[in-house]
Design brief:
mainly beta, 5-stranded antiparallel beta sheet, 0% helix, 121 residues, 52% strand, single chain, globular
Length: 121
């Protein structure tokens, strides 16, 4: 099978609430590489002060939640930085993106995240 990239997108207009989450049901077998290379995050209005905003990327398989990585938006930064172990996804898994557990800076709004993976079957 030739090398094939898959892009999964999440977006939120306005300000996400603490612990808000988005779900992406997985329909193909794919893997997310360690460090999550090629993934992208952008916030239209960055936090003005306070602390970084860290979004968590999880895999839910048979009810078990496994952390795959994070997307961190530093204060006054519009571009997110990804980190984490990555992992395998199979049909039936749910990819979950969760907003920070602490309330976001009131200025932080309009965020989009694209997760890049490689199709494995």
């Amino acid at each position: 099978m030739p090398f094939q990239i898959e892009a999964l997108r999440f977006s939120q207009t306005g300000k996400p609430t603490a612990n808000e989450f988005w779900l992406y049901p997985v329909v193909i077998q794919m893997s997310l590489a360690p460090g999550l290379p090629g993934c992208a995050g952008y916030v239209m209005t960055a936090s003005a002060a306070g602390q970084a905003s860290v979004f968590t990327l999880n895999r839910i398989r048979a009810g078990v939640v496994t952390a795959l990585g994070t997307c961190t938006f530093q204060v006054q930064a519009n571009v997110g930085v990804f980190a984490g172990p990555g992992g395998a996804l199979v049909p039936g898994d749910i990819l979950q993106l969760v907003s920070p557990t602490t309330p976001l800076d009131p200025h932080f709004s309009d965020v989009g995240v694209t997760i890049l993976g490689q199709r494995t079957a």
